[in-house]
Design brief:
The structure is a single chain. The protein has 260 residues and is of the alpha/beta class. It has 2 domains: 182 residues, Ribosomal protein L4/L1 (Ribosomal Protein L4, Chain: A); 70 residues, no CATH class. 23% of the residues lie in helices and 19% in strands.
Amino acid sequence: MKAKIYDKAGKEMKEIELPKNFSSKVRKDVVQKVFESQKREQAYGTKPGAGAGYSASGISIKRRKVWKTTYGKGISRIPRKIMSRSGSSFNWVGATATNTRGGRAAHPPRTEKNQFKKINKKELAIAINSCLSASVSPTWLNKTYDGKFNGGVIVSEDFLKIKSKEFVKFLEDVFGENSEQALKKKYKRSGRGKSRGRKYRTSAGLTFIIGKDEKMKMNGIEIVNVEDLTIKDLTLNGVPGRMAIYTENAIKEIQEIWKK
C-alpha cells in the first residue's frame, strides 16, 4: 500500500510504501475488546473509613438489668448509635453495618487494586494494526466522519517546525471540508449535565504521531510519541478510523515496534 508524503505547505513530495501494519484486516471486535480493557486508567475506590465515622456501640447487649441493654426491646443486634435518651431508655439508629443508612459498602473497590486488565500480546498487536490500517483507509475514515477522505496523511520532518497559521492552512488544503473536525472544539453540553460539574465537552480532533526522538507543540490536537501509542490514541471510543497524521520517522518506527 502506497501513501503520499506532504511538506508543510501541503504539497506532495513523494510516495512511499507503507509497512504491512497499514494493510491489515480491521478487526473491530478485537479493537473494542482491547479498548475496554485499557479504558480504566485512574485508580478508584472508597475513602478509607467511609461509612464507619460513627460512635456506634457495636453489638447490642441482650442481658437483663444491664446498662444500655436491648433485652425485650424487639430490635436486632446490629451496631447502633444513640440519637437521644430518656433515663435508661435510648433512641437507637442502626449505623456502620452494610444494611444501614450511611453504613459502609459491603465489598467496595480498593484504590490499591490494579484496574488495568490484562490482554494477550497477539490480540493487542491485532488491535493496534487494525487501528493503524483504519487510520489510512478512506473507507473507514468516511464511515467514521461521514466525509470524503482520500487516505492517510504522512508529513516530512520539516513539518515539525510549522506555525499555527500554516498548520490550519495545511489542514484546509489536505483534508478539505473535513478540516473543521481535525481540531478540538469546546462547546456547551446539552441537558442536565451542565449543572453537575460537566458543563463543557471537547471534541476529539486528530492525533499527530511523531517519532521517539521528535518533538512538536501545537494546540487543538493530540500529539503522541510512537513509543507511547495506545488504542485510545487511534480510536474514537473504541471505534477504529480516527483522523491521524504521521511523520515519516514514525512510520518507520511503527514497523520496528509492531512487527507484522
